[in-house]
């Protein structure tokens, strides 16, 4: 969207260079003042749709001629600057190509200018090709990092970070900014009559925004460090804020920022906005949507889920349950927005009669949890898309990483297998929650407790956990045997998990691009953009592993983008990048076999019947109505089903290439002993097997401890409110 800024006298256009202007690439020599052109009419493309971020560092005063007093008296002007804040050029999101970034010098290739990108992460070992910043070779005032915006651009600010490294501490304390139209003649950003000095960093990770005193039009921009951490060297990661300006002489002028053809609500939604959007979708499509909550965060924010189905609120026999979970890490926000976009898209396309969407909605019960960690998201949201940093808001309010907070069932299973005389008899599914995890003093976040209860209540078949910060799809197991830092640790369904991951990765427009740049330091393209979780890095207590070992649900993790918190202007592009992937992945819930396990005499469904596929050492169980779904790749499978008190049944089921399930129903006959027990019990309830009884007992204890914790927290909250009210009354 273009906006005319011709009436803004604050806009400067570089020009009027004197003949003696330096042609050397040395910013410390060229102090020529910029020429103001108040009559120039400028059209700016892509102004920010984000809020102005509250964490900024303005330029430092340059001495007696500085404009400090004027700045204090001119708050209205500063507010206007905030409103006109431009989006990032895209160093962090990789929109800016490596070839557009130059430097005065660099220590080595791994610390070259292409590494001077906001939030870029280094490997564990310093010294490789993928280090955590641009670092100058020399420690003097003549070093600079230069960015070519390609187009004429209204520059409004610079965001700086130090070097990401386990071993080194390096950052820039203060810096200057120069601008140019040709990368030969440079003009310094001025603070009154002197060169502006901008505040940089005080630590390696916290991003600091320096706003230009006056937004200025140019093509090139340089960051020229002036002081740096005394025990370190000149290292920085940066992002540049700028709005593209129309230039009729520019061959790129006809290019516009990509916009999605889907007219969705492309912006970042805080808790209140998210609720309003979800409510608007239910009002637009009341027949196929329902909003429900599965619990609350530590700070009392509700965990809302949108259900989309032709019969919302009810499990239909034979219809699989699917879920997307986003926002487990509160600062990885793209998944949240994609899930909200997906709600709108499914609603509107269903109303339009889109046959693909109609089929999905009528044949699948879809559950969408946009924010598993709303407390963390609110923290990141307050900082804004560029200033939240790499970890701000990642954890829950209690400082818990929710992706390490589920029960570690992997090692329970592996330890039992090693100790068992016959490992084949060790349960490979529905493993109960360990006793310690159910106690009130266990370090279990309320958000995790809520999701576990949700998993127990709904017989999910397939799901995905949406993250950010990389471009790759990972699949279980996430936890390695013997606590190895990295080791391929496949499940019994490794082939199908690789299929699921490939489905998403191959249809994602960015992942599927063979020419894309790696995000940080790992080349996942060499793995076709999918990887076993343990082979990447071990994650004990992940939601994916727990889902696979404790329920019937298969689940993968999708790392959606290099940038954890993309600017709002990038959301339409990110939706287009992921739309097909989100749809085609949901459709995989219909692969494999499905059916109903029934009692031969009563014809009623049998709950908790065990479905075992030959040569697949992972069983599943039937849902309360007796229906089941077993995800499988194409092929012929010998399937055995049995239940407590019934004779087992076996048949061969064929799975074709088509994206719809093969129906394999089973009818079980009670054992003579069971018939006798039924007669003696006169219809009394048959006791469940030991594993199911233990599983149900542990769940009841977990829910009881959760209820007690919630009551305690509510009591503490009310006491705090009462004390605050008493203090206010005394003060009054």
Automatic annotation (TrEMBL):
<dbReference type="Pfam" id="PF13620">
    <property type="entry name" value="CarboxypepD_reg"/>
</dbReference>
<keyword id="KW-0378">Hydrolase</keyword>
<feature type="region of interest" description="Disordered">
    <location>
        <begin position="42"/>
        <end position="84"/>
    </location>
</feature>
<feature type="domain" description="F5/8 type C">
    <location>
        <begin position="84"/>
        <end position="243"/>
    </location>
</feature>
<feature type="signal peptide">
    <location>
        <begin position="1"/>
        <end position="23"/>
    </location>
</feature>
<keyword id="KW-1015">Disulfide bond</keyword>
<keyword id="KW-0479">Metal-binding</keyword>
<dbReference type="GO" id="GO:0005615">
    <property type="term" value="C:extracellular space"/>
</dbReference>
<dbReference type="InterPro" id="IPR000834">
    <property type="entry name" value="Peptidase_M14"/>
</dbReference>
<comment type="similarity">
    <text>Belongs to the peptidase M14 family.</text>
</comment>
<dbReference type="InterPro" id="IPR000421">
    <property type="entry name" value="FA58C"/>
</dbReference>
<dbReference type="GO" id="GO:0004181">
    <property type="term" value="F:metallocarboxypeptidase activity"/>
</dbReference>
<dbReference type="GO" id="GO:0006508">
    <property type="term" value="P:proteolysis"/>
</dbReference>
<feature type="domain" description="Peptidase M14">
    <location>
        <begin position="267"/>
        <end position="589"/>
    </location>
</feature>
<dbReference type="InterPro" id="IPR057247">
    <property type="entry name" value="CARBOXYPEPT_ZN_2"/>
</dbReference>
<feature type="active site" description="Proton donor/acceptor">
    <location>
        <position position="559"/>
    </location>
</feature>
<keyword id="KW-0645">Protease</keyword>
<keyword id="KW-0862">Zinc</keyword>
<keyword id="KW-0325">Glycoprotein</keyword>
<dbReference type="GO" id="GO:0008270">
    <property type="term" value="F:zinc ion binding"/>
</dbReference>
<dbReference type="Pfam" id="PF00754">
    <property type="entry name" value="F5_F8_type_C"/>
</dbReference>
<dbReference type="InterPro" id="IPR057246">
    <property type="entry name" value="CARBOXYPEPT_ZN_1"/>
</dbReference>
<feature type="region of interest" description="Disordered">
    <location>
        <begin position="708"/>
        <end position="732"/>
    </location>
</feature>
<keyword id="KW-0964">Secreted</keyword>
<keyword id="KW-0482">Metalloprotease</keyword>
<dbReference type="InterPro" id="IPR050753">
    <property type="entry name" value="Peptidase_M14_domain"/>
</dbReference>
<dbReference type="Pfam" id="PF00246">
    <property type="entry name" value="Peptidase_M14"/>
</dbReference>
<feature type="compositionally biased region" description="Basic and acidic residues">
    <location>
        <begin position="66"/>
        <end position="84"/>
    </location>
</feature>
<keyword id="KW-0732">Signal</keyword>
<protein>
    <submittedName>
        <fullName>Carboxypeptidase X1</fullName>
    </submittedName>
</protein>
<keyword id="KW-0121">Carboxypeptidase</keyword>
